[in-house]
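G., before I forget:
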Amino acid sequence: MGIVSPGFSGRRRTADLPPGQYLTDDFPVLSAGPTPRVRPEEWSFTITTETGREHRWTWREFRALPTERPTVDLHCVTRWSKLGTHWEGVSLDTLLAGVETTADHALAHSYGGYTTNMPLADLRDGKAWIAFRFDGEALAPEHGGPARLLVPHLYLWKSAKWVRGITLLTHDRPGFWESAGYHDYGDPWREQRYWGD
Amino acid sequence: MARAAVLGRLTWRVGEVRALREETPTARTLILHVPGWPGHQAGQHVDVRLTAPDGYTAVRSYSLANSLANAPDAERVELTVQRVPDGEVSPYLTRILAVGDPLEIRGPVGGWFVWRPDRPEPVQLVAGGSGVVPLMAMIRTHRAASSRAPMRLLYSVRDPEAALYREELADLAASEDGPEVTCVYTRAAPPGRSRAPGRIDADLLAAATWPPEAGPSCYVCGPTGFVERAADLLVAAGHEPARIRTERFGPSGGSR
């Protein structure tokens, strides 16, 4: 236990949240730069395998794929959590179904240059989506529209906004925040915020 | 985007409150002595942890306000805290915390929203409200390191009463070699101002910030709506998105 702060009583959590998180009802925005404005007609999504093979979807092709409507909790490393959010997107299982790979790692890329890494296993088995709708509405640009990666079991910086592709790798390659002091994996329930956590 | 700073493992340290400075009716600067402090760069922040007698803890992030460039005391940490109505941590820090109290912090955190005084290119700082805190650390570093990089600050704030670091910024604006400072007001301007209170716009940006041809690095910090608007305006004016670094905070997602 830390040293007691004289005169501090604090508020107790009411919901079951990961350690160090607090509940919010709004949807804060955190990004490292200006919000890219990408029109659906110029958007595409590419999975590149470790052999360099590319699997590419235009917006029209992407939107023709079967979709899912996950309801998930979001946990941001800046300590807010938002519970029971409603999304619509294409499961990574669907996108990876025709992709031949022996890679163990993935690096997501975004319009604007952002990157974030995760084990490929964390994108499979119903755990991740390319989401294009939030709360029944087209995903707003400041929240990553037209489409973002959604990997809700990891801290939200892993859910890359304005996603444009995923590169499959045989070795781990740290992304943008992972190179700037933030944890490589980022499990909120183990409170993996920074390097060494 | 370029990779930035390297950080080691972050451990909690116990600082002591050496002094408190009231900046506005709702904001206060905490001046701490933190034994073993590893140092920090302008733009970085720290986590502050409060612990109740039963072990309950609450942690929030706050921007570092002071510069350690050529500082006599390398273990000095200054945080400026804006009181958030109905907040859990900021009311304690701005009202209850007293000189001599211990305060746990860990950091510094953040390797992206950072300015280093060895950078030669012009710097454009754009602040909304308490978003001026990490930018003030950059201004103080600029001065302490005698940087020759041309620096400008555009500071948008509700009214003169709400402005942080008012006197220090006025002194800077009056000095020959200091950064150029433009304060604008969204609700109420001081008497004699030609510009009516209002949100920042393209005309203001054209008049008070570096043009894109000057090739400035831009740092924008403030509430989400302000940063969205300011960053969009900078991009529309022709600034390269990759040269615009932002830090946003929302009503409750934010921390400061």
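The mean pLDDT of chain A is 94. Chain A has one domain: 38-190.

More on Monday.
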